[in-house]
Amino acid sequence: TSDEWPMYRHDPRRSGIAGTIVPAKLEQAWEMNIGGKLTQPVVADGKVLLSAVDEGTVYALDEKTGKVIWEYVAGGRVDSPPAIYKAMALFGSADGWVYCLRLSDGKLVWRFLAAPQDLKTVAYDQPESLWPVHGSVLILNGVAYCSAGRSTWLDGGIYFYGLDPATGTVICKSRFESRHPKLKEGAEQAKAEHVTKILRTPPTTRPIWRLTSATLFLWPGAR
């Protein structure tokens, strides 16, 4: 409904705009001390969802009372709030997985390994995938979009997926990787291809356009 806020910044456009009229005078309804670093909340179906980032825990609170209805501990940090969609809560974790929970009780519906391999490193003093799933899952036209990876320059790039929200089945996928420049011996400057793809929504992931622009400058070590 118009007074709900079911995903990060309200909608797939990340507009940060809701249709609800906010009164000039607001009164605090409740307060819940969860502790630690928290994400922004999302609100739908009478529940407030948010994540305790470093604990990797997603909380569902009662919208009217603030009491904890359920909590779910993922396998890594959760740096963004879940997306609420059709009685489900979807979110990514630094362990490289995407999770889908039942909104009513927090039970796991499915999880999907977005990382190409289940390999770990250490970040923020805890185990983490080489391809963490950062940011909130974006749901558009019945498809849940997510990505895994740190940079287009590292570990094979960024892995991008469109998933069926109900089952976790892959609808579309792509990989974004910055190629290493081809250097000639003694070269002072070389061009590196940096490709940006803007994807269409399913059923195709054919790029709408691509941009090639990066330039790499090299200096001798004596300078």
Molecular structure report:
The protein is mostly beta strands and 223 residues long. It has a domain at 183-223. The chain contains no helices and 18 strands. It has strands spanning 42-44, 47-52, 57-62, 68-73, 83-85, 88-92, 97-102, 108-113, 120-123, 126-129, 138-140, 143-148, 158-163, 170-176, 189-191, 195-199, 207-212, 215-217. Strands 1-2-3-4 form a four-stranded antiparallel β-sheet, with no helix packed on it. The N and C termini lie far apart (62 Å).
What descriptors fit this protein?
single chain, 223 residues, mainly beta, four-stranded antiparallel β-sheet, 0% helix, 39% strand, globular, disordered C terminus, Quinoprotein_ADH-like_sf, Pyrrolo-quinoline quinone repeat domain-containing protein, PQQ_rpt_dom, WD40/YVTN_repeat-like_dom_sf
Describe the secondary-structure layout:
Elements: E1 42-44, E2 47-52, E3 57-62, E4 68-73, E5 83-85, E6 88-92, E7 97-102, E8 108-113, E9 120-123, E10 126-129, E11 138-140, E12 143-148, E13 158-163, E14 170-176, E15 189-191, E16 195-199, E17 207-212, E18 215-217
Antiparallel strand pairs: 1-2, 2-3, 3-4, 5-6, 6-7, 7-8, 9-10, 11-12, 12-13, 13-14, 15-18, 16-17
Organism: marine sediment metagenome
Domain Pyrrolo-quinoline quinone repeat: 27-170
Protein name: Pyrrolo-quinoline quinone repeat domain-containing protein
